[in-house]
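Re: the request from the purification team.
They wanted to know what the chain is likely to look like in 3D before they choose a buffer screen. I agreed to run a prediction and write the result into the notebook, where they can find it.
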Amino acid sequence: MDPSRSAVKYASQTFPALTTEVGFGDSVPFDSGSFDLVHLGFYLYLADRDDYLKCVSEADRLLKFGGFLSIIDFDTPIPYSNEYVHKKGAFTHKTDNARVFVASGLYGVVNKYSFSHSGFCFDKTIDERIALTLLYKESELLAACD
């Protein structure tokens, strides 16, 4: 799912077995627990702050217990916003988005790979830091509640 029609068209042509739809992550038309894997790729940094928790909630709702959540996005030690260079009046919101899921107590970090826009290495410039984080939605928590 992507808000860009051209991105969805490209994905459906390049990967015909993949189901693609135009849409945004604050209201996803799939059943709860439908997915083994949910991937959020350079997405949450552009989510309007009014919709941020809705988007996080939707990703969590879609992922079944025992599934994996993959996030590739900016990775800063403190949250901050700045003007989006591609659209005047829009803002980017950079933070470690995995922290929200881990703070819920439902997710554990499987792996985190930090790198930068300029290459596959750590960058001292905060604005350039990126991470690919793989989280596991804990299924054992359900058994503990029985």
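For the purification team: The chain is about 20% helix and 30% strand.
Please add any questions underneath this entry.
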